[in-house]
Every structure is written in C-alpha cells, then in structure tokens.
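From the methods appendix. Each design record in this collection lists the tokenized structure first, followed by the designed amino acid sequence. Records were kept in a plain field format so they could be parsed without special tools. The example shown here is representative of the layout used throughout.

RECORD:
FOLD TOKENS (304 positions):
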C-alpha cells in the first residue's frame, strides 16, 4: 500500500500576518462574537492589549462547546471559531491551531473556569499574532501588559470577566516561558516564511490478516476446562517427580551425579589446583630473588 504525506505545505493564509496570504473568504472570520472583536481585529491592534480578553476571541457558548468535546472534535470546533478554516492543508494555520488547542486543553485540565479558559486562549492568540512581527523583548512586554488586565479587581468581578489568582498567574507565566517564548524565533521563522511543499511517498508492507477459523470448529467450554485440568495435573506430577529425585540424590552420597554437576566439581577442582600452583611458583620466585640479593651483598662487602 502506498501513502503520501505533505510536509512544508505552502501557506494559504493564517491570522496574525497582517492579511498576507490570507484568503479573502477567510479574512476577519471570528465566529459569532463579531461585535466583541471589532476592536480586536486579527489580534495585532494596539487596543487588544488594553482590555480583558474574556469572551473576545471565544464566546461563552463556543468555549462551553469546546470544553465538552473530545480532542478531535475540539480541534475542528476551535479552528472554526477562530477562523483557521484551512488548518488541514496550511502548515502555518495548523501550527497556530496546535498551540491554541494545547493551551485550551492545559487550561481545562488545570481547572480554569470557562471564562478563564477563554481569556487564557485569548492571551495566547493575541501574543502569537503580534509576536510574528515583533522582537522577543517586545512580545514579553506585551504579554506582561495583557496580564495586568487579568488581575482580580472589583470591576472585573462585577462585569463577569475572568481574573487569575497568583498561583494561576504562575501557571500562565510558566506555560508562556517554557512554551512560546522559549521557541520565539522558531515560531517567527515558520509563521512568516512560506514553506516549500515536499511530497513524500512511502511503501508499506502489510501482512495478510490471519483467517479466523469458523466458530463451529471451536471446542466447547467443558472440553477446554478438561484440557486445562489435564495440563495442570501433568505439571504437578512432573514437579513432584523432580522433587522426589532431588531428595533421593541428596540422601544417597553414592548416587550417580548428573553431567552438569560433574562439570561444576571438575571446574572447582581445577581452579583450586591452578591457584595452589600459582602461589607455590610465586613463593619460589621470591625465595630465589632473596638468595640472589644475599649473594650480591656478600660479593659487594668482600670487594670493599
């Protein structure tokens, strides 16, 4: 069987690139929260940094839909709500959707409320959209500015906007630092430069599936259980036979030894002989050396 996969698909457009390469029919699509997004635009407007992002990119209804969906369905719905309609063919849209989906799932698993999930995903998207044309330092400063609009306050609570406690802020900051900002230059490269399309073709060897015998040829449950009992009885008898043989050999010192036992005894004896011979040879060498040194000392003294 042959299959093809495309890597480095040339982009047909992605949000956050100032409209470059974005198909006209996809530009500006944000789902049903049109009014909330009039100032948000594609996430690069300066106004986006001066507001709480709860329900800006994802409405409450959209957020609830994605929360209640499995991963595959969540990816499709999130792409539709955020205008990433070409994510299956467009490498850049696929990357953006992957980051946003991961952020959504991470926030959900951390225990964020729907409003907090919407705000957190909004911060991720706004930061990514602006970071494609900004330095890492500018991106971090914009991220800090966004965080300042999501601290607990009386106004945010009364308006139903999301805010984050210090521990939740810690989770958000850690996620950004170890995720997007750590690979900031890589994201800029992939999201700003068109990628060449490469067709890869693989040949996969697939074995013919084994044919399942007809059920009519299967043995009955009673026959199967009888066969199992027979096997267990044979194993028990074999174990008992070996135990008796070992007891007999242990009680009779004149019994015939097995070949492996004879081999082990022979190796042990040979090892002891070699060790004894080596020790005797070493003692002989030391004795001869002592004698020769004594002779040399006597000759030296006589010469003096």
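DESIGN:
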């Amino acid at each position: 069987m042959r299959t093809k996969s495309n890597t480095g698909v040339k982009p047909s457009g992605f949000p956050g690139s100032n409209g470059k390469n974005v198909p006209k029919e996809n530009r500006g699509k944000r789902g049903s929260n049109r009014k909330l997004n009039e100032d948000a635009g594609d996430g690069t407007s300066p106004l986006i940094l001066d507001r709480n992002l709860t329900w800006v990119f994802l409405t409450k209804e959209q957020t609830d839909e994605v929360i209640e969906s499995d991963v595959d369905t969540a990816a499709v719905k999130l792409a539709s709500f955020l205008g990433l309609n070409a994510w299956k063919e467009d490498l850049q849209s696929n990357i953006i959707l992957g980051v946003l989906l991961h952020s959504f799932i991470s926030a959900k698993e951390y225990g964020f409320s729907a409003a907090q999930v919407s705000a957190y995903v909004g911060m991720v998207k706004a930061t990514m959209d602006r970071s494609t044309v900004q330095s890492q330092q500018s991106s971090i400063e914009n991220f800090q500015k966004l965080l300042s609009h999501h601290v607990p306050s009386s106004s945010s609570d009364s308006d139903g906007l999301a805010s984050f406690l210090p521990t939740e802020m810690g989770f958000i900051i850690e996620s950004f630092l170890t995720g997007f900002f750590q690979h900031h230059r890589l994201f800029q490269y992939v999201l700003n430069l068109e990628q060449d399309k490469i067709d890869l073709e693989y040949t996969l060897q697939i074995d013919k599936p084994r044919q399942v015998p007809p059920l009519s040829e299967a043995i009955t449950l009673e026959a199967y259980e009888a066969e199992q009992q027979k096997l267990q009885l044979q194993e028990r008898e074999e174990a008992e036979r070996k135990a008796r043989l070992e007891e007999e050999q242990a009680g009779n010192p004149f019994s015939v030894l097995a070949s492996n036992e004879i081999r082990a005894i022979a190796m042990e004896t040979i090892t002891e002989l070699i060790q004894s011979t080596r020790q005797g040879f070493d003692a002989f060498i030391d004795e001869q050396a002592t004698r020769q040194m004594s002779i040399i000392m006597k000759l030296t003294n006589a010469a003096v």
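APPENDIX NOTE: The first helix runs from residue 60 to 67.
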